Amino acid sequence: MDYIIKFAEGFRNLFDTGAETFISWMTGIVPVVLLLLVAMNTIIQLIGENRINRLASASSKNPLLRYLVLPLLGTFMLGNPMGLSLGRFLPEKYKPSYYASASYFCHTSNGLFPHINPGELFIFLGIAAGIEQLGFSTADLAVRYFLVGLVMNFFAGWITDFTTKMVEKQQGIKLNSEVKLNH
């Protein structure tokens, strides 16, 4: 009988923990993401969607801008997950590649810029604690992680371009090369 009671209590605790996590999201990340979304849309309206579309179109023509500069600026200024939303301004053809690059920037920039992805800062801090115990500088680790990330995140986006072309060919589809936003 004790096993059944312990199982029932454990089962109930699972839902209590889930509820606590949900409430922490509602008082933590959800309002932040909502406000970032409002701020981004306000800035877009102030600048003008046509100008943003032209900037995105210009950025989409150059892989370095598309997978290095745009994702870095997006994640630095908007953090995770809002930095990923800048991909909406790119043509459909480049959205998978932008996402690949920008999502990696949310991780590799975390050592220098913890505001980008505070939910995963514990990963960097765990590694940094080991580095400190070895007597090395965590600043060196953060800079190296960032620099390697710049290169590797760019390649993640660029290589995804090639895999997207393969999938297009395999599926017999052609993704749009022009920026088209749905209102």
TrEMBL record:
One GO cellular component term noted in the UniProt record for this chain: membrane
Pfam family for this entry, one: EII-GUT
GO-annotated biological processes: phosphoenolpyruvate-dependent sugar phosphotransferase system
PROSITE patterns named in the record: PTS_EIIC_TYPE_5
InterPro entries per record: PTS_IID_sorb (IPR004699)
UniProt name for this protein: PTS system glucitol/sorbitol-specific transporter subunit IIC
Species this chain originates from: Niallia circulans
